[in-house]
Design brief:
This protein is α/β, with parallel strands linked by helices. It folds into 2 domains: about 130 residues, NAD(P)-binding Rossmann-like Domain (Rossmann fold, 3-Layer(aba) Sandwich), CATH 3.40.50; about 210 residues, Rossmann fold. Helices cover about 35% and strands about 15% of the residues. The strands form 4 sheets. Strands 7-6-8-11-12-14 form a 6-stranded parallel sheet. Strands 2-1-3-4-5 form a 5-stranded parallel sheet. Helix 6 packs across helix 7. It is globular, with a radius of gyration of 22 Å. The termini are far apart. The structure holds 1,4-dihydronicotinamide adenine dinucleotide and the ligand O=C(O)C(=O)[C@H](O)COP(=O)(O)O. The ligand O=C(O)C(=O)[C@H](O)COP(=O)(O)O binds next to loops. The site of 1,4-dihydronicotinamide adenine dinucleotide has 35 residues, from helix 6 and helix 7.
Length: about 375
């Protein structure tokens, strides 16, 4: 029997069109349960999701990625949203305290692309320093700042290559991995890789006089964690990689540091993205448009996780699995480990670097070009670890 629409249970969803497989996960069949629920899906570019759209469409569900800032400004004219899902790991674009105060359920996709980002970092290191593939009596030392899902996964890959790892994470207990101070990690490593959330000083009073109690406040703030002092303490030969959030590094200090030291730096994220100034871009060893997590597996896992969270909120059983949508994956870490010369076959990071640099115009990468590269990105495949 045709399910009759039931306004009480029907859903209107506003979603970032850059979320993978939206229609396969969010439709009448996958969200109906036994209610006959009908779904109205409104797909919009993430940066175009604004207060006016939400006031006009009054969605019950908001599905986003990192470019949509969810806060009082966005939701002030909407009282219908009851669920916000971010198909991302990072949550610095979401005011979770505000959502909690509005009793709006929030879910992100913690860990969804941990292997993707770790493999991106490995690809960058081994592209710039292929000698690190060789087992040696003096293996390279990798400093990992932030030992959560991505940092600890990267440490696994590094250990499987026989590298030394210096890990620093002030919010986790000391361990075999969390084995160094910040100073030791940045002074004693051949490579330093950043894997922290973007946070600001807790209880800091802003210029406007407000005190920062937000969910992104920390006693160990990461904004400009890598500043002039940190860069001055880092040996000039140390390769620095940022695939966390752009503002973790002070871009002006970084530019001066590279001019002074000639340091090799890899950035997947930029303090002022989506704009990138040529003056910085031209000094980077590798530059990519925030795509470290952009594998088919990573993005599908993100969609799966917020779909599962919505199903739980609706008290229905999930009716869609990413495994039905994934083509066969023959990218095997074991094969790559045995034949490191095949790295470029798996992922040629320099193609992404060249594609970004090709968009330079009038001394900068423009926001529209940065966003288009990400929108049209051919999703990589994760190596099966
Ligand atoms: N470039 C890209 O495409 C992607 C970037 N990311 C970014 O990477 C970040 C890390 O991701 P996950 O490891 O999955 O997050 P996670 O939350 O699992 O781990 C973050 C770790 O950083 C630690 N930390 C916090 N403040 C610190 C500080 N001041 N110094 C050292 N460690 C500190 C925390 O204790 C935690 O263990 C995300 O927050 C996101 O911003 C995530 C996915 C893709
Ligand atoms: O998951 C995160 O955190 C990320 O940084 C994502 O890779 C960001 O991708 P978009 O949400 O900007 O598409």
């Amino acid at each position: 029997m045709e399910n009759k629409p039931n306004a009480a249970t029907d859903l209107t969803i506003v979603a970032d069109s850059n979320i993978a497989s939206l229609s396969e996960f969010f439709n009448n069949d996958t969200l109906s349960g036994t209610t006959g629920r009908r779904v109205r899906m409104i797909k919009v570019a993430g940066r175009d999701i604004d207060a006016q759209l939400l006031a006009d469409t009054q969605p019950n569900v908001l599905l986003i990625r990192s470019v949509t800032h969810v806060n009082a400004d966005l939701l002030k004219d909407n009282d219908s949203v009851r669920f916000v899902g971010s198909a991302t790991i990072g949550t610095d674009h979401v005011d979770q305290d505000y959502l909690a105060a509005r009793r709006i359920h929030f879910a992100n996709a913690a860990g969804c692309s941990k292997h993707s980002v770790a493999q991106y970092v490995l690809g960058a290191i081994l592209t710039l320093r292929p000698e690190y593939w060789q087992r040696s009596s003096t293996p390279p030392t990798l400093g990992i700042i932030g030992l959560g899902n991505i940092g600890s996964t990267l440490a696994q890959y590094a250990s499987s290559l026989g590298w030394q790892v210096l890990g620093y994470d002030p919010l986790l207990p000391a361990s075999n991995l969390n084995n160094a101070s910040f100073a030791q990690a940045i002074k004693q490593s051949d490579v330093v890789s950043l894997h922290v959330p973007l946070t600001d000083k807790a209880n800091a009073t802003s210029a406007a006089g407000s005190t920062n109690h937000s969910s992104h406040a920390s006693e160990y703030p990461t904004r400009h964690l890598i500043d002039k002092n940190a860069l001055d303490a880092m040996p000039a030969s140390t390769l620095l990689i940022n695939s966390a959030r752009g503002p973790v590094i002070d871009a002006a200090a970084l530019q001066a540091d590279i001019e002074r030291t000639g340091r090799q730096v890899v950035l997947d994220v930029f303090e002022h993205e989506p704009q990138i100034e040529e003056a910085l871009l031209s000094k980077l060893a590798i530059a990519t448009p925030h795509i470290a997590g952009y594998t088919l597996e990573g993005k599908l896992r993100g969609t799966q996780m917020i779909y599962d969270a919505l199903c739980e909120k609706l008290s229905i059983s999930p009716a869609q699995s990413m495994h039905q949508l994934l083509p066969l994956n023959m990218f095997l870490w074991s094969e790559l480990q045995a034949h490191p010369d095949r790295l470029v076959k798996f992922y040629d990071i320099m193609q992404d670097d060249q594609a970004l640099r090709a968009t330079l115009a009038e001394g900068q990468v423009k926001a529209a070009a940065f966003d288009q590269l990400r929108r049209d990105y051919h999703l990589r495949r994760e190596w099966q670890f």
